[in-house]
Every structure is written in structure tokens, then in C-alpha cells.
Structures
1.
Amino acid sequence: MWGIELRDKSEISLARQIFLTLKQRILAGQIAQGEALPSTRELAKGVGVSRNTVSEAYDMLWTEGFIVSRQGAPSRVAEGLQITSGNAAPNPERTKEPTPILWDFKTGQPDLSLFPRQLWSQMIGQAASHLSVRQLAYSSPRGYWPLCEEIAHWLLRSRSMEVDPEDIFITSGATQALHLLVDLLYREGHAFALESPSHQGIRTVIGDRGYPLHWMPVDNQGADISTLRDQNVAAVYVTPSHQFPLGGILPAGRRAALIRLAMANDFYVIEDDYDSEFRYAVAPVSPIYSMDSSRVIYVGTFSKTLFPALRLGFAILPKPLQARWKHHRMYMDVQNPILEQIALAEFLNKRKMDKHVQRMRRVYGEKRNVLLRSVERSFGSSVQPWGDVSGLHVALQFPGMEFGESFIRACREAGIRIASVSQYCSIPGDHQDKLLVGYGHLSHGQIEKGIEALHEFIARGVEGS
């Protein structure tokens, strides 16, 4: 009756099921405004429930304003409630099911199967069992103080960085840090300088706010700093230790020039230390922060090192920015979840991070070698790798070829997920001869078979052109 179908074993009460069904039909226009509802006795008999159950459902409708009632008259549907048409014709065009991804070369994906989950679970459990009443309350927008101290020790061990824990602020990954920094550093009439190509995340953060951008072309040594001269700059964002996506290392001369420009023109440098833990040929590259901490904001994350769902990162802030950062963070979300911060502090303190990074550096180094051998075996020596000495992806240059959006879509339809470097460029067509191949999350066999599949796909395209 009235389209009401009740489920006896549902966790939703029978009265609320009646209420929800009638509400939905009213909003869809299937029960017209002004239409009289059946009496509680009649509806109860029709759907096989007690009269009290129907009365409770009608009370819900009346309380929320879906029906109006007068003593001695039937309840009627209130005016002006229809939102959608109950008779709308179904869309004849059904969304096509996407082709399953067989070979996934997505970038930035760590190998989560090797993360020590049991150890992490134990540390989370210990953090929960020792949680004090005070730690259940709101804390400082700085973050958990022992974690700030452990991050400072970790940076000294891993990067030879001497950092005051007072300057470290915990974030929900690097993304939140960038959101906060863009708003903190913006000045009217001044542009944010970004590398081209660069990560879409920072471009989106700035672009969504409508702030102006200045592009710095990137070569195999990173950003061309000379383009900043005579520019009104709010801040410069760089990935100097492993440029994303081309992988170059910003040389000391360009770093020094960047710092001099920042000092002379009163702007800050945002240093995103992208994938610097995983360097395979030599020791990790020293950050720009080590050259001058007064003009550099260092941003780091544990998402790639440990696991993305952790959502913990940090920013090292010069003193003049700290009060405003605390204000913005206080009215954004105050703090990160405490259990994960406590567990991560313990993970760092017990040197479990050091052990995990050492292991993964070896694992990823082996995968990198498998990838490069597979590329040479399938494509020969004509295909040149960029940025192959660190990180979880490689840029492959195919001289004389062009990989546009249609190629990327065709790959996806063939079950291959891959990106072109041109997708990350400010000027359409730049670096169109390069593909990005992520390998951190893949097994040796998946890498080998995936490169073979990519070679066959490209060969078919060349033969059919």
C-alpha cells in the first residue's frame, strides 16, 4: 500500500521505514501536495503493522513539516516539497564499464605489502592503552610535541639537518601544509613561482584560489632560477632533491641564486623534499634548508615512506610565520589524530623508521634495475631514462615520439595506466616525448610484463599510423 515495503529484520524501526518511504515519495512528487494521507487505522491495516506504529511515522512527518494536520480532518501533504520528478524517464545512456587496469604504472605508490603492519598495530595499541585524560582533549595546533622532537632527530640522522623542534609543525600530509602556506604567503600583485612541469597538487591549490602563477622551465638539473629576476614573487615552490616529475637535482649554484633572490626580494622558498629518502646511487641530497633556514620552508611527509593513509607530514617554519600558521591551523582543524602521532613518535624513537627505509631503499633499487633492464630489452638503447637514481618512478624519453591525451586514453582502454610528462606542463606540448613510469608498488614480474605490454601497444600504434 502506498509503495511501502517493510523489512522485519532491518535495523531501522518499522515506523521510521514508513516515514522514510513516504518522505521520499513526497519529495519525488509521487504523492502530490495537498493530497490526503490514509487514516492511521487504514494504513496500519494495509501494511500489516499496529496503528501505533503508523501514528509514530505520521508524527515524524508532522514534526519535520512534511504533513499538516487539523483535528477531525485527514493529514495532508504540505505545500512546496517536491524536489525531483517521480516520473523522470531513465537515462538510456549507461556509463560504460572501464577496462580493468592490467598494468598500473601510476606514480607515487609505495609497496604497502612490505610495511610492518603487525609492529604498527602494536604501537597503535600501546598508544591507546597509555592515553591520558589530558591527551583526549584538544592540544596545540603545533602537533604532538614528542613527535616534533623525534622528527628533528630523524632529520639529523637521515639528512644531516639541524632543526629546532620548536620550528616543526605537524600536518595532515604535505597537501595540508601547502594549503596553509599558499594562504599565508600570498601578497596581492605577486605570483607564486612553480616548476614546469610540476605536481598537479600544488598547481590546483594555487589555481583554485585564483592566485597568479609564474612558471620556471625545468631541464635535467631542475628549475631555471634565472626566470625569477624582475618578477614580483610571493613564494617559490621547488622539489630540488628529486624534481617532480623529471627527477633532476637542483645544483648548488642555482640553490644559492634562489636564496639570494629570496633575501633580496623578501619572499620564501617552499622546499618539497619529494622522495628524497629513496636515493640509490649515493647518499640523500642535502636540502636547501641546510643552506639557509631563514628563507626556506621545508615540507615533508610520511605518506610515501610509510603508507598514504597515515596522513601525517610536517612543515619547518621560520619564526616570523609561526604565529599566523597557528592561527590558521586553529580554525582549520586544530590538530591531527593523537594516536597516530604517538605511534609515529615511537616508530621513530625505536629506529624502526631507519630500518624500514633502509629495507625499502634496497627493494626499490632492485625494482628500478628491473625496470631499466626491461626498458632496454623491449625498446633498446634509444629510450633514455630521466631521474632514475631516486624516487618511485622514472621518466622515459622516446626521441621523435609524441604522447598526447589521446595516447593516454588509448592506453587506459587497453588496460595500461600511465601518464605523460606533458600532462604536468604549463605549456601544451612541452616534454611530449616522455612518459612517467611508476614502479614502487609493482613486483618484478609486473614490471617486466607491463613494459612488454607497453612496447607491444606502442609498436601497434606506430605500425598502424
2.
Amino acid sequence: MSTNHSNSNKLTTSWGAPVGDNQNSITAGHRGPTLIQDVHLLEKLAHFNRERVPERVVHAKGAGAHGYFEVTNDMSKYTKAKLFHDKGKRTDLFIRFSTVAGELGSADTVRDPRGFAVKFYTEEGNYDIVGNNTPIFFIRDAIKFPDFIHTQKRDPRTHLKNPNAVWDFWSLSPESLHQVTYLMGDRGIPATLRHMHGFGSHTFKWVNEQGEAVWIKYHFKTDQGVKNLDPDLAAKLAGENPDYHIQDLQQAIEAGDYPSWTLYVQIMPLEDANTYRFDPFDVTKTWSQKDYPLIEVGKMVLDRNPENYFAEVEQATFSPGNLVPGVEPSPDKMLQGRLFAYADAHRYRVGANHNQLPINRPKVPVNNYQRDGYMNSGTNGGGSVYYEPNSFNGPKEDPHARITPFEVEGYAGQTAYDHDDHYTQAGDLYRLMSEEEKARLIRTIVEAMKPVELEEIKLRQISHFYKADPDYGTRVAEGLGLTVQA
């Protein structure tokens, strides 16, 4: 087979067509939503989901527990989602905590974000909040996710972790700076899974019975208080007890020391999204709590360990697309991609009928026209009608569950968010730190960047630190023996 060397450096799809833009997905206007016609985005996400067999591509290692959510503040004024109605109401749930980059056998105490995925078994079907222990993320468009995770995984030639890839990608993706600062700080290694916050991270829409909508963000605040691990102790534990976090959670619950979190939301009026100083759908940014204070919703308590790790923790499947009436997506480009990618990963990893497994099965009747597929453990619809519309009294749609109409505008194209200030919030986070925290942050970054071979990558990343705060950039440069590049 001949090779056209003149095109050897051009990015193409798997069918050989050139890719015109690999940084921005196709959206309706700057905010979106994302268009399903972006076949390059779909191919990247679908192929990425199928790169590992059979463990999860990301969040492979985790711990899980059962519990309940209790409403402490009736939120029916804002959402028709019944799990948030009626003070004192309880809803059963299952949670899975996880590291992101490591494999099933990796250590719990590495510096990494932690997955924070909650499945509520509600009276209207399962509702999943699939977030992290950070309120932000490294990137803000799903089209960059496979590339980002590749940098966190093993080099295909050496099968070793590759600091060159990590810092090259981050330095070429300045939107990552806020999360990098968070990750390299003290909260990058939680002391236990019980001593960290959780966040929905994305912006979502709440809609009430009157059809009135608001934008919201979820915050799970640990009632145990935030505690973090010293990096030297974390490294020691990684060698002595790589399952430290799993063990701690299991033993705490077994002893009756049930961990809990208080759930809060920030609420933003719809119209504020057009005037707020940061794009509220950009997942690399936070909303100021001075502008949109935390409002208490309820309490999450974990009080029962799994009986079987594989059946429950490994086979649990979460998707931000598992929504209930009263909760809808926002135009967040990372969220829009995840609505497809997570469920698609489960269809590949666990099977098309993953929601029939006990850990994922809703506690309400399931009525649809899906049939057959691997490992179909239900009645497969029995002898009932198997298509819709039909004249035989089969299940019909519920108008109550329709989404609220929303306006889209602009030309469809591959465009970034309008706001490109990647430095203010990262700098604010740095300036919030005590001098001791700053010193630890700088030391962690310097040690992580020392193995990077290309000076160009180091200087490019230092310039981002400097733009966030001159002191930040100067101290990293000095630690690496380089001259700061403003």
C-alpha cells in the first residue's frame, strides 16, 4: 500500500478524511448546544470509550457504598424533581468514589482528581450526579477529552507515565491552569474519601412545575471536614497499602461511623448567564459564592457497604444523561459530550442491558421498546407490543417529562467560548492560599515538571503561571532554574 507522504502529518478521521478543527466541537453559536452532526467528535468519544477491555477507561479503581439522601430544605420552588421535595424525605442512593488516571491495581493515594458519582434511586427513575472532588476541570470541550486522558495514561512506546505529554498538553491548553493549580495544591491528595468535598462541576438547569427555570451548580460539603495527605506520607502509603482509601471507607462504615455530606446548590437566574463576567457554562470556571450563595438542599449519609465488590462497585454505571423531570442539561460543552460518552462506555464495557443489573436497576417500573441484546436478564418485554406508536395500549410518552424549550442562536460552527480569561480564577486561587500552602504548591509543581525534557514546554507553562500571578510564575521558574517569561 502506498503512502502519500505529503499528507502524513495531517490529522484525519479513521476513514481518512482531513479534520478541520480538533479543538472545538460543532455547536449552535458560541455556547451550543453541541450538534450531533459533529461525526469527528462522536468518533473520537466512541473510539476512546473502547480503548480498554474490560476496566473503565478512566476512573478504573474505586470504592463504593450505599446510603440515603434526606431533604432538609424543600426545593419545589425551583425544581419539580421530587427527590428534592418535602423536608425529611429520604431517597436511597449508591455512590462510587474513584481515582481518574490509574488502573484497577493502582494506588489510592496518588495526586489525582477523585470521581464523585452518586446514583439516586428516585420515584421517577434513577438520577445520577457524576462529578469530581473539584468544582472545575482541565478542559471545557469534550472534543479534547480523549487527548487529555491519553496524556495521563501510559506512553505507548515505554509503557511508563510521561511527564512530557502531561505538561506539553497543559501548556498548550491554558484553560487547564485553574484545575492544575487546584490539583497541585493541598487538596490534590485527600486524606480519605470521607474528608473531601464533591461537586457536580457542570452547570445544570432546574425547572419547576410552572416551567420556570434557573441554572444551578451542585456542592457536596463533607461533614467530616476537609483533610489532606502530606505527599511524603501519601507516597509511603502507596507502597505499604495501595488500597488505603477503599479500606478506610469500608472500615468506617462497618464500625458505624457513617460519613455524611451536606448538599448545597448555587442558583443563577437564566438571564444572568448573558451578562456574568465568566461564561457560566465553562467548566474551567467557578461562580463566585458572593454572587450566588450556597443554598442547603439536604444530607447524604453512607451507611452500608457493598456485599460484593464486582457486582456493585465494578458493575455500577453512571451517566450525567440519567436525568429526571425537573433537571435538564445546560449548554456546557463538556457536559454535552459526556451525555453521550458515559452511556456509550457502559454499553461497551458492561453491555447494552447494563441498567438491568441489580445495582443499576431503577426502583420503579421500566417500560420501553428496547429488546434483546447481550445479557438481557429481564422478561425482554414478554409478548407485549414491541413498537411505538401502536394501537395496543403500549407505553406512551408523558408530556410532564418534556424538556423546557430553550433558545439557540447564531451560526453553527466550531468555535470556542467567547471568554478566554484562563488566568483570573487560577490567580485568585493562588492568592487565597497561605504562604505555607503556596510553598507546598510550588514545590509540588517544580518536582512534577523537573522530568520534562523540553525547556520550551517548561517556559510555556511558566508563562501561564506568571499570567495568573507574577509571584506564582517567578517562584516556579526559580525552582526549575529558569528565567521567568512574562
